[in-house]
Design a protein that fits this description.
- The protein has helices at about 1-5, 10-15, 20-40, 45-55, 65-70; strands at about 110-120, 125-135, 140-145.
- By secondary structure, the protein is an alpha+beta fold.
- Among the domains are: about 20-80; about 110-145.
- The protein has a three-stranded antiparallel beta sheet, with no helix packed on it.
- It is elongated.
Length: about 150
């Protein structure tokens, strides 16, 4: 086989005794450390934050090397895009104002007002709070629900 491929026999036998270089051993240790830092921070640390953490631990590496190692290990940070509201193409229906700024009442359950508020949550998606207020008794009803 060596004669056909014109390869020296010593090169063929040398390929069985390959050793891992010092640089590759160091890269493997660094990759394990990067994975540990990345996992400890809930996969929210990218190469820059990992680099700053390593510098704080007195392990001075270039950002490019950490980027290369994270890319090789397929480590990606979890990013969450901010919600951006887009205008609706539906035509707005104008409703009549039934109260006409007259908030005085004579009995319970005569007039009710309501509001809804939405808040983005870090892990759970959106949190909606719907509240209804009876104007006479000032009793507040609230409903809280999450949407992912």
């Amino acid at each position: 086989m060596c004669e056909v491929l014109t390869i020296p026999r010593s090169s063929y036998y040398h390929s069985f005794k390959k050793t891992v270089s010092n640089r590759e051993q160091e890269n493997q240790k660094l990759t394990k450390e990067i994975q540990r830092i990345h996992g400890r921070n809930k996969a929210r640390y990218g190469a820059l934050e990992i680099c700053q953490t390593l510098v704080n631990n007195r392990c001075y590496l270039s950002l490019k090397r950490i980027q290369r190692l994270t890319k090789k290990a397929r480590i990606r940070l979890i990013t969450k895009k901010k919600y951006q509201a887009y205008p609706s193409k539906e035509k707005v229906v104008q409703l009549t104002n039934l109260l006409k700024r007259n908030f005085s009442t004579q009995t319970i359950n005569e007039k009710w007002v309501a509001d809804i508020t939405c808040t983005p949550m870090v892990r759970d998606g959106w949190c909606y709070l719907a509240s209804v207020l009876d104007l006479h008794s000032k009793k507040l009803w609230a409903i809280l629900f999450l949407v992912q």
